[in-house]
Amino acid sequence: MSSHLVVKVHPLSCYSFGKKEAKVDKDIFLSDRLDRMRANFMRDGLRTYVEGILLVYEYGHPHLLLLQKGNKIIRLPGGRLRPGENEIEGLKRKLTSKLSSSSSSVQPIWQIGECAGVWWRPNFETLMYPYCPPHINKPKECKKIFIVHLSENQCFEIPKNLKILAVPLFELFDNVEKYGPEISSIPQQLSRFSLDLE
Amino acid sequence: MSSHLVVKVHPLSCYSFGKKEAKVDKDIFLSDRLDRMRANFMRDGLRTYVEGILLVYEYGHPHLLLLQKGNKIIRLPGGRLRPGENEIEGLKRKLTSKLSSSSSSVQPIWQIGECAGVWWRPNFETLMYPYCPPHINKPKECKKIFIVHLSENQCFEIPKNLKILAVPLFELFDNVEKYGPEISSIPQQLSRFSLDLE
User: Which residues of B are less than 8 Å from A168 in CB distance?
Assistant: First the structure.
């Protein structure tokens, strides 16, 4: 096991979850989202998106923190980088925007770890792939997913139009129908790490 | 992309594939395999298994080398470690046994890279998981999958009861029915690497 990287994981009960102002929804329909993506691509080129894998544990098993909008869309916390923005700094900004008090003067210190996976969007469509498909010279989006090492306690504040979920890895695995290809394969991407349940 | 690890990948045409003596089949039926696993567990405890991800490319897209027995069972090259054997040395031994001339005095230099994934077998059953499921204190097998960096040319010799396949990543992705959960999620596990098609 010497080749394993260690991720320290703390109990869910170490964390508190409050509410904050709702985030304005940029798109109501998926088609709006794809239209906006197309317009942005014309202006800025390849869209780069970053997301974080935040882990806690309960009943001796690791759980992934996810954000849910309404009763359907489930996502990792993260978002789109500004043109030219550093991916680590951009992920910290997005984590604060999605998970922390915006008003507090003390901002959380996000510790961003290794890249766990990368997904490519070849066209202005919903499907992404864990490789750039053949014959695609100009992919439209690249999404990078990073491990986020949580400290042993933290107060999260979640926009009130979002719900936060802690989902066990065994529920995600092989569950493409509910979580989609990206989130349902996070257990495989985490498997090379030694998750140290403290 | 600076956080990416690079894997150099060479064209399939750089490699040659010959035949060698067949490997004796230890088990004819799956039930024999599980029985043998049970007997070995009683004697040696946790079974540790190692496998290699060997990549080539064709038509500008990465392909994974796989071994097929008969018309069904498709596996990564690898095998079981001897009790106490170092996992890197054990993987080199298994790669030579499955992919190289046994008679040649010059043995290939296998360059074993990063661990890409780990799978656990909680019971003497076929299913494995990319985590140790809750309430399992004594998993029966741990399988670790490593990147193998191929040199830019090599002569493979395959036991004549096995076939070697080069399968594109886009064919593996989301194809659990044909390749099983472990092999079909290799594209996700590789996604964090920058595959440099030379």
Answer: 134
Tell me if B130 and A174 make a contact (CB, 8 A cut-off). Answer: no
B57 to chain A, minimum CA–CA distance in Å?
11
At the topology level, CATH places domain A3-197 in: Nucleoside Triphosphate Pyrophosphohydrolase (3.90.79)
Domain locations in chain A? 3-197
Digit-coded pLDDT (tens) for A41-76: 999 999 999 999 999 999 999 999 999 998 888 999
pLDDT digits (tens, 9 = 90+) for B164-178: 999 999 999 999 999
Q: Which of B6, B89, B91, B191 to mutate to test the interface with A (most CBs of A within 10 A)?
A: B191
Complex-level ipTM:
0.91
CA distance A139 to B77: 33
Alpha-carbon distance of B119 to A190, in angstroms, equals: 11
A185 HSE (CA, 13 A, CB side): 28
Q: What is the DSSP string of B113-151?
A: EEEEEEEEE-SSSS--BSS--TT-SS-SEEEEEEEEE--
